[in-house]
């Protein structure tokens, strides 16, 4: 179809001028004399247009249909592989956040580990997310008020919801009593995507890059890792609910609350595995196994894994891993003590 100025849409797409034609009218004699001149003129004009076109296309250009900035190199601009293989996703209009759940006051180690997780994701220069994504602590009426105030003062964003109840249960440890409340995340539609981590994670490398993982854009809106120390099991269809990326959706939230017919021994994990079964209508996607491991050892640190999921205060943990955890706790406390001192000095200077 014609474009705005008479050129075709295809002409405008690549900035190519519309075809140019020439005509000459005169006497037969003059036409004969000028035929050679016209031929040379046309050849000269073709040469000029060709030179102009080459100069135009060999310069780095920005075009809304191409995924390049103005600083793109000539080689990348001319490479069709870049254009045809790169997937594009809409920029989120709502915040992307990290999140954990802290509810039961029965295990204070979870509170300490939540503080360390906050420090790792927001403050530690070796592991923080430099894009300034918020760290959200999801709390409940059972969460001690003093814990909430400390976490808020250290930089956490606090969201409180009622406990999610009425789902199947079985006699398990008290620490699993509140885990169904994780499902409330799917109702937090003020966020575009959430990376959820159980509080007992030790982050040893930045997780900033996980937001670009293709699995995080799965149509079902859900990605996770296999529930094993190897992280990724190609043929397995069971994931851990301790580390997962999700897109909140009210309809999904309502459907999750209706799921039944699963073994409740692992509560929310088995519920989610039933809902996001790979053969179902909402199949889960597998995140890259480099991001996280469960049942970790110090070798996983050496291998470059980014986050380790373990209750390191327990005896069965690799001693080197436990040592690293306590070193990071000391580092965190030193950071907050120093920051509090600087704040106090600044306050005194104003008096």
TrEMBL record:
Gene3D superfamilies for this protein: Spore Coat Polysaccharide Biosynthesis Protein SpsA, Chain A
Domain of life: Eukaryota
Residue ranges of the TM segments: none
Alphabetical list of InterPro entries matching this protein: Glyco_trans_8, GNT1/Glycosyltrans_8, Nucleotide-diphossugar_trans
GO molecular function terms listed in the Swiss-Prot or TrEMBL record: glycosyltransferase activity
PANTHER family registered for this protein in UniProt: GLYCOGENIN SUBFAMILY MEMBER
Protein name as catalogued: Uncharacterized protein
Species lineage: Eukaryota, Fungi, Dikarya, Basidiomycota, Agaricomycotina
């Amino acid at each position: 179809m014609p474009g705005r100025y008479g050129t075709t849409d295809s002409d405008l797409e690549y900035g190519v001028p519309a075809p140019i034609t020439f005509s000459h009218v005169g006497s037969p004699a003059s036409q004969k004399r000028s035929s050679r001149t016209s031929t040379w003129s046309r050849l000269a004009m073709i040469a000029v247009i060709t030179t102009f076109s080459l100069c135009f296309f060999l310069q780095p250009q920005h075009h809304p249909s191409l995924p390049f900035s103005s600083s793109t190199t000539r080689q990348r601009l001319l490479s069709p592989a870049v254009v045809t293989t790169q997937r594009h996703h809409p920029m989120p209009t709502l915040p992307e956040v990290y999140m954990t759940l802290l509810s039961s006051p029965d295990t204070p180690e979870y509170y300490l580990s939540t503080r360390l997780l906050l420090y790792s994701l927001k403050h530690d220069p070796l592991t923080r997310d430099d894009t300034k994504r918020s760290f959200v602590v999801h709390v409940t009426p059972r969460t001690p008020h003093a814990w909430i105030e400390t976490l808020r003062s250290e930089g956490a964003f606090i969201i409180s919801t009622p406990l999610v109840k009425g789902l199947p249960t079985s006699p398990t440890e008290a620490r699993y009593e509140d885990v169904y409340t994780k499902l409330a995340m799917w109702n937090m539609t003020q966020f575009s995507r959430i990376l959820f981590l159980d509080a007992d994670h030790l982050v040893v490398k930045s997780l900033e890059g996980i937001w670009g993982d293709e699995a995080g854009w799965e149509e079902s809106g859900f990605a996770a890792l296999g529930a094993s120390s190897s992280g990724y099991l190609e043929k397995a269809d069971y994931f851990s609910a301790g580390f997962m990326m999700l897109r909140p959706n009210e309809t999904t939230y309502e459907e999750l609350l209706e799921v039944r017919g699963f073994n409740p021994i692992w509560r929310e994990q088995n519920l989610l595995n039933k809902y996001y079964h790979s053969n179902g209508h909402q199949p889960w996607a597998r995140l890259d196994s480099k991001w996280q491991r469960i049942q970790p050892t110090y070798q996983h640190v050496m291998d470059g894994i980014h986050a380790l999921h373990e209750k390191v205060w327990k005896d069965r943990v690799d001693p080197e891993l436990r040592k690293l955890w306590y070193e990071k706790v000391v580092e965190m406390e030193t950071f907050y003590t120093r920051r509090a001192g600087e704040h106090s000095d600044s306050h005194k200077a104003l008096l």
